[in-house]
Amino acid sequence: MTLLAVRDLTVRFGRRRLVAVDSISFDLGPRQRLGIIGESGSGKTVTALALMGLLPETAQVSGSIQLAGRELVGLPDSAIARLRGDLMSMVFQEPMTALDPTMRVGRQVAEVLLLHAGRSGGPARAQVIEMLHRVGLSDSERVADSYPHQLSGGQRQRCLLAMALINSPDLVICDEPTTALDVTVQAKVLRLLDEVLTAESAACVFISHDLAVVSQVCSDVLVMLDGRIVEAGPVARLFTAPEHPYTRGLVATSRIDEVPPGARLPTVEDFFPREQAR
Amino acid sequence: MRILAFLGRRLGIFALSLLGASLLVFAVCAALPGEVAAIILGEGATPDQIAKLTAQLGLDRPWPVRYAEWVGGMLRGDFGTSYFTGQNVLQLMAPRIAVTLWLVFFALVLSVLVAVPVGMLAAMKRRSWIGFVASAAAQLGMAIPAFWAAIALVLVFAVWLHQLPANGYVPLTTDPASWAAHLVLPVISLAIVQASVLVRYVRSAFIEVLSEDYYRTARAVGWRPFPALLRHGLRNAALSLVTVIGLQLASVLVGAIVIESVFALPGLGSQLLDAVSQRDLSIVQGVVMFLAAAVLLINFLVDLSYAWIDPRLRTGDER
Prior knowledge:
The structure holds two protein chains of two kinds.
Chain A: E1 4-13, E2 18-28, E3 33-37, H1 44-52, E4 59-67, E5 70-71, H2 77-83, E6 88-91, H3 105-117, H4 121-134, H5 140-144, H6 153-165, E7 171-175, H7 183-199, E8 203-208, H8 211-217, E9 220-225, E10 228-234, H9 235-240, H10 245-253, H11 268-271
Parallel strand pairs in A: 3-8, 3-9, 6-7, 7-8
Antiparallel strand pairs in A: 1-2, 1-4, 4-5, 9-10
Helix pairs in contact in A: 3-4, 3-6, 4-6, 6-7
Chain B: H1 2-31, H2 36-41, H3 47-57, H4 63-75, H5 89-124, H6 129-143, H7 146-160, H8 176-210, H9 213-220, H10 225-262, H11 268-278, H12 281-309, H13 311-314
Helix pairs in contact in B: 1-12, 5-6, 5-8, 5-10, 6-8, 7-8, 7-10, 8-10, 9-10, 10-11, 10-12, 11-12
């Protein structure tokens, strides 16, 4: 049984109908973790926003996205809004700016409960505190009563994670959730993400430009290039036997620790020369 | 304590601005051509008589003395006496302050109540015809002079439909219903321009909110666009909007002067106009100083409201 089935998803932008995502297809089973990697402009974030139904008005979406058997393409926003934060949720790249600076963090998490579970007041607060605790915030009471500017980047990203997970969604989409964090915090948040996804038995689409990061969380990977999927498969196979020259370049650049000192570092272009420089 | 330092700084700025305003008001009135005594005595007055009356009024003394006396009096609640009638200026102003305050207060409230939803709509629907119509209406509203709107409203609602009084004023304590009826048209005339100006600021403030990450987060957890903007955008947008509204107060007061004479409202504005044409400078000084103080006070309160709206100012350390 598949949780998410994407068929020939195409996203065009504006009057000139620039193609950002070009008829991609993939499946995701329950509890499965799928990484999408690619450079900026490869269409990975647009794919994520299309799944969430959060693309700007100028976007035209065609193809099919089925979540738990429900077709999402062409569904009115009011219907998709009911699924967002409940059946599927999203963690964004910028923890520093993704929280409302004028509202206490606990209230922002509680809102998600109120919105979908209709729970508020004392019971909601208890659940918020517990969720914050589960995402690794040991002083969750204090964090809940803090404004975003009083928290560190790692703490804010955990709060966003708590918002995304509090309604036990079936699918969590993570768009470069650790890119803005420094490396030590990044490793902690990734481990945590791995734990809570397992605990909540949620499936995950994990977007990153970093193959090393994806391999820590995901079992399978899609490689996107210029809006198309150029390669797909289990992470292990991609590392050992990459087929597409672009993937070979990605693998080589993610293993710069194996380059002998003094030698020139590999670039993607060594493996996958472009016709014109971008 | 950060908030106390903030308060202290704002209070200092408020006091300094008040001092600057009083100097300016005094200097402009002192520099006006034409001697008060000559105007009071009329055309046939001899230079002797003029000099005598000038001395009587105390206008022959050096300006620092007169300034100190004026400011000192105001601090004690004494705004001086009218050069013409000899009446106490503050007592002359008192009944008129209420008229102007009601007019300005309702005009500001009405313009905010209209501009915020319309501006939000214009921001959200900026790519569709709804947003275009909202913006175009705001543009049109800005182009309409307040006095013209006033005359047009009087023509329709007072002359043709006989629904509302064309001019005049009834105090609230005398007859509340009639008081309200007399204020409706002046308030609307004054609010049209203000609301139109404000719509543009509201629109751009909310367009900014629409591109913020926290708005996207709100949408991602399931809020529909309008509730997301209300819950997470309003407070953030309010930070820039209260500044604009505070600044707008000055133009509302200027507008009130015009509107009061169109509708024959016995407010500070019409009093100021009368006093200027009569060269009754002690009344002019008193009224202008009162209006300046009101504007400065509101802007001081606006500064304070930042701390209430923005927790980053209220709660200490930034990490």
